[in-house]
Structure prediction request, 724 residues.
Amino acid sequence: MSEESEESVPLLPLQQESLASALFNTDQNDNSERRRHDNSERRRNDNPESETNGQPQNNIQQVVEQDEEEDEELTLKYGAKHVIMLFVPVTLCMVVVVATIKSVSFYTRKDGQLIYTPFTEETETVGQRALNSILNAAIMISVIIVMTILLVVLYKYRCYKVIHGWLIISSLLLLFFFSFIYLGEVFKTYNVAMDYITVALMIWNFGVVGMICIHWKGPLRLQQAYLIMISALMALVFIKYLPEWTAWLILAVISVYDLVAVLCPKGPLRMLVETAQERNETLFPALIYSSTMIWLVNMAEEDPEAQRKASKNSTYDKQAPANQTQNEDAEADDGGFSQEWQQQRDNRIGPIESTPESRAAVQALPSNSQTSEDPEERGVKLGLGDFIFYSVLVGKASATASGDWNTTLACFVAILIGLCLTLLLLAIFKKALPALPISITFGLVFYFATDNLVQPFMDQLAFHQFYI
Amino acid sequence: MTLAVFFGCTFIAFGPALGLFVFTIARDPLRIIILIAGAFFWLVSLLLSSLIWFIAVKASDPRDEPLQKGLLIFGVMFSVLLQEAFRFLYYKLLRKAIEGLVALSEDGCSPISIQQMAYVAGVGFGLMSGAFSMINLLADTLGPGTVGIHGDSQLYFLTSAFMTMVLIFLHTFWGILFFHGCEHRRWWEITAVVVMHLAVSGSTFCNPLYVGSLVPSYLLMATAAAWAYLLSGGSAQNLWRFLLCLRSGPSPQPGS
Prediction:
């Protein structure tokens, strides 16, 4: 049974993972996040991994309001900190993937291929193998492109329910099913006897908390940890089910696709970003890793109590902050303001009611929220697809390289440097950028170079115990 | 081999470097980036030198043992020269970066000085060099086997760990010396670094006669350490005060 289900990995989680790797600053409001969900397109298992991500550009208009020089300074001054804020999760994801690959043999065992890569690589001639892998990569990429376009169409025609449902089904699958398989394999590796009831409890708790953290609210660190874990799980699935040459080809082609989709004017991801900007909407949090919490809009939207309090507080900020504490025990409907207090307030400044219009007006003022926000809180976002493909590269390097740890280390450093350069470009250009091309290019170059050139050299040096 | 060998060799080789990283580099994001970029530059230099070696080996007769060994020695020397060349390139890049940081700062001075960058760059080079020499060995210590069962030295892992440690330290000091030489246009300092590096790598050619490689390397490391300390503003007086835990007195602060 496990074979069947493993072979027919649903498209959903894969699509989820294929979110474009969006890389963007969160200087602006939350409105600018945009996620790319390619996965929800189909139920079949296509893995459209469109890593390119729609990175929503932060509302550039708001940035212009500030002093440009100061803004540049701030962006670059905090640039180093943001780079580290992304280095750490990317490193953690890679460490989890490499540790799993090295210890759990399940993920390096060949148990068939996904239906998105139907051509086998066990052929007689090298030419046949090359042809098969090219065909596999072509099929995968076309699936991804179709998914992406479908997603853009869905978004344009405001089918939010469909996208939402797609995301939820994908995360359900990842958080429950894949982690169950992972847990089972880890137990098998370490020969731990475990009963179904305990496992059910563990997976249930893990999954439910994950769903809550990712799709609703939760502590930032916990949400980040869950996003890292689901990226690692997805990367492990790819490492297991993609044959070698196909995997490298897919990595190469997808970084080209990422570049095209995010930067070309007619690219699907760019269109998605622009549509989101026009509508002034935020993206779903389930597909993008954020280094800071964006809580202002969420709180106001989802909690009417808090909304009232927030609007009341911001409007009546100067009035009587002291009085509010006195009425904390008042009924919840008051929002903490008793009748007496309201009468006092009315006497002083006249009857003012918080109407939906005034609340909306307050909410729509982004600059107020910006000034109260500590500039150090501004974070940077990276799409989960980026995490996945970085981890796939490093994981494949550790699984199949003859140089083993040297190759893994070289790919790791190459990817980090690529990410650093991408963030530097982000600081310069201040718009959504694809995070895959530079890192994957460096990673691939270093993988093949280290595996074929450096490893024989280091082997000979170690044999004679020479040091360079 | 046992877990004790694994942990012992890991901490011998990387313990001091890890301490340096945790206490001086880990807090500052800019330093971490410079560290990783330094590691990257070392990696690129290794790539190019192994490319040259690979071409030379493929063009020669694989059965000729002395020729292969000669090619390997040539490869080592060439790699050393290329590493120093990339250290110079990294110095150039960091100089430009400092100008950029100064331009962007509020008070007109860079958040990090060239001496700090020299130190971090040295640690970056050293860590990457040590990692590439040692990591595969460490992975092997976890597996089964007997060291030196065919008549080779039984101290292989231990001496490798000590050699790695000394190389990491040496790279750190060489970074400081090299950048100082480039800053103040003292070419003899730069040549001294290159010659020291060649000497250390050359001394490893007499392995497994470990006394011929480890002892000179440690002596050179002590020399380089003293020299780098003096160049960074340290003096015998500073050292004396530090050892006696004196805080008072108008002593010049050593550059951090």
Residues 87-291+379-464 of chain A form one domain. Residues 1-22, 25-66, 295-332, 366-373 of chain A have pLDDT under 50 and may be disordered.
